[in-house]
Amino acid sequence: MENQSLNYKNVWIVGDSYIRRGEERARETMGTSLGLDARVQWIGWGGLRWERLLPFIHQSLRGRAAPDVLLIHCGGNDLGNTKSLRLVADMKRDLQDLHWRFPGTKILLSAISQRRRWRTANPGKIDKTRKWVNNVMATFVQSFGGIFIPHPTIKFDNADLFLKDGVHLTPRGNYIFLNSMVHSLKD
């Protein structure tokens, strides 16, 4: 990865355990700033579901200026627990709210990635829903100038990318996940 200069200096990466664990891996391999010429704030909460994301972000904002870039990875824990139509409606509403409240903040949404195991329902059905949610949200985020970050190389059939729980990523999987985010932040 070549180190390009960014137009922004304050980046927040917010989300579920993928973010919390990603920060740990970044610290070990590329530094918590991900090699970017920016201040990167990691705000991860294991088990985070979408309904708690906006309050979590607003709580994190108390006494601080809005970031130049807000990268969000959340929603995977909702699949199988929340109806897909409601999840998409909530995601759209909350991202639109963030866009209106913080018009100077660039919003990036990280795709819900594949898993080897879903804790709540039939894996085939959940993966079909995951693809649909990602497709709808990619179009939506791009409609207001945001960026959607796909993770095409994180595949459920590659056991080397997942821990034994089938949900969380191994160091190699985390490296791939982090690289997707870094490339999107540099573009």
Concise summary:
GO terms for molecular function: 1-alkyl-2-acetylglycerophosphocholine esterase activity. Residues 14-174 form the SGNH hydrolase-type esterase domain. With 187 residues, this protein is an alpha/beta fold.
Tell me about this structure.
Its EC number is 3.1.1.47. Pfam families: Lipase_GDSL_2 (PF13472). Residues 14-174 form the SGNH hydrolase-type esterase domain. GO terms for molecular function: 1-alkyl-2-acetylglycerophosphocholine esterase activity. By secondary structure, this protein is of the alpha/beta class. It contains five helices and five strands, in the order βαβαβαβαβα. Helix 1 (17-29) crosses helix 5. It starts with 9 loop residues before the first strand and ends with a helix. The relative contact order is 0.17. Residues 1-6 have low confidence and may be disordered.
Q: Looking at the structure, what is the overall shape? A: globular
**Regarding quaternary structure, how should these chains be classified?**
single chain
How many beta-strand runs?
A: 5
Structural class: alpha/beta
Widest sheet: strand ordering? 2-1-3-4-5
The succession of helices and strands, N to C, reads: EHEHEHEHEH
Strand proportion, as a percent range, falls in 5-15%
Give start-end ranges of low-pLDDT stretches. 1-6
The count of helical stretches stands at: 5
Radius of gyration over alpha carbons?
16 Å
Estimate the mean pLDDT confidence: 90
* Helix fraction by DSSP (H/I, runs of at least 4): 40-55%
**Main sheet summary:** 5 strands, parallel
| Terminus-to-terminus distance | 12 Å
